[in-house]
């Protein structure tokens, strides 16, 4: 009986398709030479392949940036020059790779449950030297205001088209914290978030998680590791400070607490991490760590 029912359904569908092809005008049919594609029956279950937006600095000047990103072994979808040109009074961004193609900007990378972020991201490179070294001290180079205005406009457009979540707008250093420092602590993440680009914690939630303690006092390494893992970072969950943990915390601080990026596990870092998890983790049902985190200390 079941087989008869299935057969009837198949025949009905075939009949329906044939009926539709012979009776509808052909604007849903695309000729591909030896065959044709009919787009009349779109599936309800589909989404975008692009899930992440990644910001970088190039660490070299305009000429070298363009050479490396067009003739070298790396690429990005967009390049914002040090002084963007104008067209009809509007700032111009260079598109080096179509958004439908994969650019090679992320390298070995991971965020939450995903790796190889090149596969699922749009990459924006910004011409900026990164930092200059002065007697073993790093002086980070600010971005130009015009670059950030253009970056915000471009990012808002990409975010809207692919419905990218705030917590998936990231630094290269977020997805490759042991290898990368770009776009660095001078990237204005808070201002960008205020313009609809990326995540930022609520100040009152950060205060709540400070629990009356001084922001520079020692935080709990295990809680910070668990919160960062829940948020998406690849970090050991040992409860012990080691060089890997310190570098991941430093990457987190470059994004969310740029005035001190030494990687120290202080109370303010812990509070910001927990505030971000509280604000954004509920929207990440795929992230198993979020469940663990609730068990450990949020509930
Ligand atoms: Zn980069």
UniProtKB/TrEMBL annotation:
All residue ranges annotated as the N-acetylmuramoyl-L-alanine amidase domain in the record: 38-184
| Entries under InterPro entries matching the protein | Amidase/PGRP_sf, Amidase_domain, NAMLAA_amidase_2, Peptidoglycan-bd-like, PGBD-like_sf, PGBDSf
Q: Which SUPFAM superfamilies match?
A: N-acetylmuramoyl-L-alanine amidase-like, PGBD-like
Keyword terms, alphabetized: Cell wall biogenesis/degradation, Hydrolase
What are the BP-aspect GO terms? cell wall organization; peptidoglycan catabolic process; peptidoglycan turnover
Q: Which CDD domains match?
A: PGRP
Which Gene3D superfamilies does the record match to this protein?
Peptidoglycan recognition protein-like (3.40.80.10), PGBD-like superfamily/PGBD (1.10.101.10)
Does the entry feature the keyword Cytoplasm, yes or no? no
Xref: Pfam families: Amidase_2, PG_binding_1
Listed GO MF terms: N-acetylmuramoyl-L-alanine amidase activity
Domain of life (superkingdom): Bacteria
Q: What's the catalysed reaction?
A: Hydrolyzes the link between N-acetylmuramoyl residues and L-amino acid residues in certain cell-wall glycopeptides
Enzyme Commission code(s) on record: 3.5.1.28
Write down the top EC class of this protein: hydrolase
What Gene Ontology cellular-component terms does the record carry?
Answer: outer membrane
Stated family: Belongs to the N-acetylmuramoyl-L-alanine amidase 2 family.
Q: What is this protein called?
A: N-acetylmuramoyl-L-alanine amidase
């Amino acid at each position: 009986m079941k087989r008869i029912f299935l057969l009837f359904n198949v025949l009905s569908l075939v009949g329906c398709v044939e009926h539709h092809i012979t009776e509808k005008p052909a604007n849903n049919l695309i000729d591909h030479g030896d065959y044709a594609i009919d787009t009349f029956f779109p599936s309800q279950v589909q989404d975008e392949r692009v899930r992440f937006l990644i910001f970088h600095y190039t660490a070299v000047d305009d000429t070298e940036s363009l050479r490396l990103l067009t003739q070298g072994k790396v690429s990005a979808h967009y390049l914002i020059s040090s002084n963007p040109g104008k067209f009809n009074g509007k700032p111009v961004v260079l598109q080096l790779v179509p958004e439908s193609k994969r650019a090679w900007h992320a390298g070995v990378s991971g965020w939450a449950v995903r790796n190889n972020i090149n596969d699922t991201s749009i990459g924006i490179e910004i011409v900026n030297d990164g930092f200059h070294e002065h007697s073993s001290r790093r002086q980070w180079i600010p971005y130009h205001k015009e670059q950030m205005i253009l970056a915000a406009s471009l990012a808002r457009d990409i975010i809207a088209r692919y419905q990218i979540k705030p917590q998936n707008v990231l630094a290269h250093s977020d997805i490759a914290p042991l290898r990368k420092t770009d776009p660095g602590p001078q990237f204005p993440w808070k201002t960008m978030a205020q313009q609809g680009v990326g995540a930022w914690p609520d100040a009152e939630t950060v205060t709540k998680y400070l629990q009356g303690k001084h922001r520079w006092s020692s935080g709990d390494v295990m809680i910070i590791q668990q919160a960062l893992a829940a948020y998406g970072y690849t970090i050991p969950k040992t409860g012990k400070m080691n060089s890997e943990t310190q570098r991941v915390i430093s990457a987190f601080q470059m994004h969310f607490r740029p005035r001190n990026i030494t990687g120290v596990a202080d109370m303010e870092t812990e509070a910001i991490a927990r505030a971000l998890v509280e604000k954004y983790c509920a929207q990440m049902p795929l992230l198993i760590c979020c469940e663990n985190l609730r068990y450990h200390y949020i509930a």
